[in-house]
Design brief:
Oligomer: single chain
Bound molecules: dioxothiomolybdenum(VI) ion
Structural class: alpha+beta
Number of helices: 19
Strand content: 25-35%
Shape: globular
Distance between the termini: 65 Å
Strand order of the largest sheet: 4-6-2-16-13-14-15
Length: 766
């Protein structure tokens, strides 16, 4: 028995459906077990540092060609003439593909229009002469080397007939808005008469907050290596949605879903952007036309031109309160942008639906359409920018009534979900606030702004609530195979984008099965495996966990059947046994046990394999389920230059059971760092005359670098959520939320200047 197994106090029973009312919690959350909760290092770490982890653009294929794209330089209109002969004659060129010779393709089903749709937009790609945005790919060159392809695309000349385009967010708002929707639901909520209660409230704030567009910049560029064999398409992709990508490609190319095999074993960051964009589709089309395999790696500029990001927002938050701070009215409305060809509305009111109690609410997101690349999901779409507005406004109200901003928040802590009326599954935000305030020494904060100075630097403290919902989407499934040597292979079409999925799931599975980590292999990132699992919405852990629970149930039932009457387990019901020390044992008598190896040997089986689907995700209908964090920031603002330095940051999280403190802390810190970028730097510069992104590189589009980031402290409550598989809620997206406001509030405390439009650049502080 290994040391870790010795630490197991008892066998772990089958997980009941804790997410159904009346069901009891997953046994993994009731007490601490061997691997769950341990700071296990990422199991893919050694492969990565040795350079042996193959990413999408690193798969060798015989006869490979390399692709380069030529982008439209106008926002709307049509191609009058496209001159490709020079490119065609350039050295090494295999193919120049434009709308004139591209194979016939169906429209891409856009994300959200079907459970398996992965398209960033719903355009028919390279099928006609129409231009939809400045940066759209109008030609693809294939050549024997990347350099030859890059050179050849530079020789292409296009004449456009230009139509008037909508490329100014402000102008579009002036021209009129339309109601927004998110996942088919209207983004509109009214409870009571918020306008009337706001009008008569004795204390109030009413302010407008603005956030700019953001572009995705994962370290790994979007890339795919693609090859056809007859009507079968093989895609080595960088994807957070392999099953979705395969189905969507099958629709576009008019083939069967099984004819598309997508794998994505390693992804160098996704954040919502590693779905299906034009490059994979064009790469597949070109491979078909040229009858050669294709590698397409977007340049950094190419990612800016053809992969969507976060849309700009203009938000009004109006809070009406009593003198004691309790809220009469919360009004959070505003506008965001989308395009005529996508379905993603940045849902910035979602956090406001559940954070605070109030007598009345009016929440509403309206939209305008811009002729730009389709916007998409970007780490905490909605909450990242919505909490900037809401949590800035809370800070403004606290200043207005002279109350500590933490106290104001706790005073408005709801008993139940304030807009849905549902009980919370677990909510420890007050505990997170208290623990964080103590650790950050919040008592040192001066309520009066501009009170603390260190030479030329003004120093301030700010805080904000962070939050992100628990989601679990339908489609979770898993296959568990146990082999004669007592090892288990668990297979799910899930994704490892660097966040620790494979590691955390291996920990959970080892504990459930009573195995050590090296006896468990977690297979993922492959459409031949079970499940429709999206690494998005911070829901992958729950989705995989629920699939594993279902497969584990089936496995135990099968194992008991196989064990038969000659086993010490004979006569036991599946609910009476658990995984323990390489086999099954009776929950109430650990001496009654048999190893998996022994059961399989006696049954003369080399292995046993079961597959099952996760239960329907009904838990969100019964409980209001959200993660929270209290974010604390110390900002230093140079009085002479306006420069902002973040000198301290603490995130105090309440995200259910933390399965792996090492990988979770990394997610929290990564989210906070991205939040610092949102607060201080990130901004897509759109030339409103042409709709062209003017800063399409990491030299001009700024993200935090090491010197911008202090040592970030993270702590957590680690209180299990009894209504989720494993007691965990997602940890991927929450870290970015609340950070914008925590920084803005710290800057206000330092300087007395309230910056309501992000990013907080030095010109706004002079
Ligand atoms: Mo996340 S924006 O759902 O990858």
């Amino acid at each position: 028995m290994s040391i870790v197994q010795a630490a197991l106090k008892k066998a772990i029973a089958l997980a009941p459906d804790s997410w159904i009312p009346g069901g009891s919690p997953d046994p993994l959350i009731r007490e601490r077990h061997g691997h769950v909760g341990q700071p296990v290092s990422r199991i893919d770490g050694p492969l990565k540092v040795a350079g042996k982890a193959r990413f999408a653009a690193e798969f060798p294929i015989e006869g490979l060609t390399y692709a380069a794209l030529h982008y439209s330089s106008v926002a709307k209109g049509r191609i009058v003439e496209i001159r490709t002969s020079e490119a065609e004659q350039a050295p090494g060129v295999v193919l120049v593909m434009t709308h004139r010779n591209a194979p016939s393709l169906a429209k891409a089903p856009a994300f959200g229009t079907n459970p398996k749709a992965a398209g960033g937009d719903d355009l028919a790609i390279m099928q006609d002469d129409r231009i939809h945005w400045n940066g759209q790919a109008v030609a693809l060159v294939l050549a024997e080397t990347q350099e030859q392809a890059d050179h050849a695309q530079s020789l292409i000349r296009v004449d456009y007939e230009v139509d008037a385009a909508s490329t100014s967010f402000e102008q579009a708002i002036a021209d009129g808005t339309e109601p927004g929707q998110f996942m088919g639901e209207p983004l509109k909520l009214r409870i009571g008469d918020a306008d009337a209660l706001f009008a008569t409230a004795p204390a109030k704030v009413d302010a407008t907050y603005r956030t700019p567009g953001h572009n995705h910049n994962p370290i790994e560029l979007h890339a795919a290596t693609l090859a056809w064999s007859g009507d079968e398409l093989r895609v080595h992709d960088a994807s957070q949605a392999v099953t979705h990508a395969a189905w969507t490609l099958s629709q576009i190319f008019g083939i069967k879903e099984e004819q598309v095999h997508v794998t994505s074993p390693f992804v160098g960051g996704g954040f919502g952007s590693k779905t299906l964009w034009h490059h994979q589709i064009l790469g597949a089309a070109a491979a078909r036309l040229a009858k050669r395999p294709v590698r397409i790696v977007l340049s950094r500029e190419g990612v800016f031109r053809t992969v969507g990001g976060r849309a700009p927002t203009e938000q009004r938050v109006a809070l009406g309160a009593r003198r004691d701070g309790t809220f009469d009215a919360i009004i959070h409305t505003g506008v965001t942008a989308m395009t005529p060809h996508n379905a993603m509305t940045e849902p910035f009111i979602i956090a406001t639906r559940s954070l605070y109690a109030a007598k009345s609410f009016r929440l509403e997101v309206d939209t305008v359409k811009l002729n730009t690349v389709a916007n998409t999901f970007m780490r905490a779409p909605g909450e990242a920018v919505g909490t900037f507005a809401l949590e800035s406004a809370i800070d403004e109200l606290a200043a207005e009534i002279g109350m500590d901003p933490i106290e104001l928040r706790i005073r408005n802590e709801p008993e139940r979900d304030p807009t849905q009326g549902l009980p919370f599954s677990q909510r420890g935000i007050v505990a997170a606030w208290r623990a964080g305030a103590e650790r950050f020494e919040w008592y040192k904060r001066q309520q009066r702004p501009r009170s603390v100075r260190d030479g030329d630097w003004l120093v301030g403290l700010g805080c904000a609530t962070a939050t992100y919902p628990y989601y679990r989407m339908p489609g979770g499934a898993a296959r568990i195979t146990v082999t004669r040597d007592g090892r288990a292979i668990v297979a799910v079409a899930a994704h490892e984008m660097g966040m620790g999925t494979a590691t955390a799931q291996t920990q959970v599975i080892a504990d459930r099965l009573g195995l050590s980590m090296d006896q468990v292999k977690f297979h993922y990132g492959d459409t031949s495996l079970p499940g429709i699992v999206l690494a998005g919405g911070s829901q992958q852990t729950a989705s995989v966990g629920a699939g594993v629970v279902a497969a584990h149930r089936a496995l135990v039932a099968e194992m008991l059947k196989l064990a038969g009457n000659d086993s010490p387990l004979a006569g036991l019901h599946p609910s009476e046994v658990g995984g323990f020390d390489g086999g099954l044992c009776a929950l109430d008598d650990h001496d009654r046990r048999e190893s998996y190896a022994s059961i399989l040997a006696r049954a003369q089986r080399t292995e046993i394999s079961v597959e099952a689907e996760a239960s329907m995700p009904l838990e969100m209908q019964h409980w209001s389920m959200h993660s929270h964090a209290a974010m604390f920031c110390e900002a230093r603002v140079n009085e002479v230059t306006g420069e902002v330095r973040i000198s301290r940051f603490l995130g105090s999280f309440d995200c259910g059971r933390i399965l792996n403190p090492k990988t979770a802390a990394s997610q929290f810190r990564g989210g906070i760092i991205m939040g610092l970028g949102l607060a201080l730097m990130e901004e897509t510069q759109l030339d409103e005359r042409t709709g062209r992104i003017m800063n399409p590189s990491l030299a001009e589009y700024h993200v935090p670098v090491h010197l911008d980031v202090p040592a970030i402290d993270v702590i957590w409550t680690d209180e299990a959520d009894p209504r989720t598989p494993m007691g965990a809620r997602g940890v991927g997206e929450i870290g970015i939320t609340g950070v914008g406001a925590a920084v803005a509030n710290a800057v206000f405390n330092a300087t007395g200047k309230r910056v309501r439009d992000l990013p907080i650049t030095l010109d706004k502080l002079l």
